[in-house]
Known about the structure:
Blueprint: H1 8-35, H2 40-48, H3 68-79, H4 84-91, H5 94-103, H6 106-118, E1 123-126, E2 142-146, E3 149-160, E4 167-173, E5 182-188, E6 194-199, E7 210-221, E8 225-226, H7 232-268, E9 270-271, E10 274-275, H8 280-308, H9 314-339, H10 349-362, H11 367-377
Parallel strand pairs: 1-4
Antiparallel strand pairs: 2-3, 3-7, 4-5, 5-8, 6-7, 9-10
Helix pairs in contact: 1-3, 3-7, 5-7, 7-8, 7-9, 7-10, 8-9, 9-10, 9-11
Amino acid sequence: MENPFDTDERRAFRDMIRRFVADEVTPHADNWDEAGAIPASLHEKVGALGVFGFGIEEKWGGLGFDDCFMRTAWSEEVAQCGAGGVAAALGARSISTKPIRDLAADSIRDRVLPEIVSGRRSSSLAITEPSGGSDVAGMQTTARRDGGDFVINGQKTFITGGMSSDYFVVGARTSEGRLDGISLFFLEADTPGFSRTEIDRKMGWWCSDQATLYFEECRVPANQLLGEEGRGFLAIVDNFNGERIGLIAGMLGAMKLCLNEALTWARERETFGRPLVHHQVIRHKLAEMSARTDMIEAYLHMICWQVNAGRTPVAEISKAKFSASKALEYCASEAMQILGGAGYLRGNPVERIYREVKVQAIGGGSEEIMRDLAARQMGF
């Protein structure tokens, strides 16, 4: 659909990203996914496009401005390479940059942000624990004061970029109480007492590393506390909103790819003496896929417009996320059905998206959590 909020600058940015993905990503995405990693050079190539610089001041290598439409254009376009792990591997830093930008000491920001924004170094957000994911207030990792340091003990898991990141934003409990006892810390990968193990044999996102992190008497200087002690929960919740918008855009891109792959196949494949697309049952599937894609796209446009206007539409973001994961589930399933046996083969983007649907329905807040959050935001 045509975006009524498009501008020449936004169109130029999307066109640049689309060309980059077509030339530098899509031809290699299947091989990278099978190999279990993207090349390190890709981080710097994407950094050179400015993708990591939204909302970051120019003195730190950023763009000096923010725009939700351009952020989502990146997420949507890179998703159309057909391998969700590529976006996850590149995007781990994006959900950890905001707390560093907003809450870190100047000495940390001046040293770290230029490296992250350029793609020379990676960063990850470490919140989810083995004991629970969406229940952030139930966090069990602890950080106690010891002189001029904090000492962190606990575990984090399902941390995207956990094996390859150089920097981490870590949530830990500094006092009793569910909401007011959580703090955020900046931690470097070479900190004594910190270790990590890879999570492998995943259903999808093969080329994106996920890890379990371990903190054993892990000592960090007090100046690596991000923001005020005990105020980390609000920062975590605020950070989730941006992550979820990116996930919605990525799901939209995957839906468009499923539709295009199914339509191309239906036009080329002949059954009973005519192209598959000439059969009414197939046309109806394609029409329904297109309708659901259009609805998510229109919803996302309105969310971006509100964000750019300075609002945080939590209920709408929550509703859009679970709506997008359900719509993607439908589109992936119907695309697989239209392609038949061809869609079931490895190397086909529809096969990969079909496998990766569930991580979208769980990561960044499960469908169940999103429905409940939306209901509470609406007052019932």
